[in-house]
Amino acid sequence: MMLLESFSLALGALGANRLRSALTALGIVLGVAAVVCMVAVGEGARSQISEKIGKLGTNLLFIQPYTYAAGARHALTEDDAEALLHEVPIVQISTPVIWGKVQVIAGNRHWGTTAWGNDSGYITAREWPLSAGRLFSRREIAAGSKVAIVGQLIADKLLNGEPRIGETIRVDKVPFTIIGVLEKRGESGSGVSQDDLIVVPLRAARSRVLGSYQEPDPEPESDSADIEDGSRIRKKAAAPAITYPHQASYQALDYLVVKYDASAPVQQAKRAIEEVLRRRRHLEEGTPNDFGIFDPADALATQEAAAKSFSWLLAAIASISLAVGGISIMNTMLVSVTERTREIGLRMAVGARRRDIRNQFLLEAVVLALLGALAGTLLGALAAALVARYGGWPVLINPAIVLLACGCTGLVGVTFGSLPAIRASRLDPMVALRTE
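and the corresponding structure tokens:
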């Protein structure tokens, strides 16, 4: 009951000087608002990056040659993809990729996009489901059929957002039949739309869209392709005969995309892949690699760490306002003690103990700080909502951060309110009663 009474008295004392109380709490309001808004923006960015990592696909490695000269000793080939699949036990998918910029035309509409030549293992490795249609069959891959799987942005730009499976579009004047549409993925970590792409069989990409070569006779279907879409996915089979890039210039690739066992550390996967490729390329010990192995999640993780550090840095800078607000509270409470010296003496004369006086002024400081924190939280949430709506930046208000900000604000009230409260409790009652 005493606490409720003290709280009521604290509100009455603060309400007696509303303007002064409001100006005193302004520093707290701005500090808490800045902390809530900045941390919400940072948490939103981290959440978005985590989502992008999930959409990118887990346990993926991209292997890239340091130059792209077809037939050069350092070119990556389809045989390298097969070797990784058969010689590295933790590799589950090893798929070759070539890519290039193309113009896609449907009716009187056209759109510039990126064409990916692949056996659809890239889609499987990224765990990218289809919203309509199917993946390539083994027969379509082996024959280099003119079939295509399009991203959702292509469907939106050229097909009014409708799947239209079986419709024919032209890729650099070559007709392709749409057999599948990928689910929408949104932007990548670099801000590029992941849905702006078209995937065609690797042989079709080489011979009809992204270049030409004298195609060898199609090989018999391999037992290593154990699903209908023909992706290179692990299955027990005899390892292929080793060939080298200079023996098959037509096989030169832009990338190899590898998906490895989730239980294996990424460094183990990198070392195993590096050993196989160095051996196939006859690189002597001490000779640097002529290829790079990249983990796409690394760049996003770096962005996440940077976003986290930046948000907390801004929050730390914003917390200076809390210290300024605390100083304002201390100054206001000192003035209040001076103004209410006679009231303090009267309370002591009728039986109030020194700790009662101290606790009363301390409670007033805490209440003033918490009211400022409440107003600051609302203002910070509003600012975060405006950033999300008009700035296009994701925000995420974490309740734990709000509670932490309010807790710190209460601590500020206790810290900076202690001096005025102690000073009030040490007044001599007789002296205080004689004060005008």
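(Above: one complete record from the training split.) DSSP finds 14 helices and ten strands in the chain.
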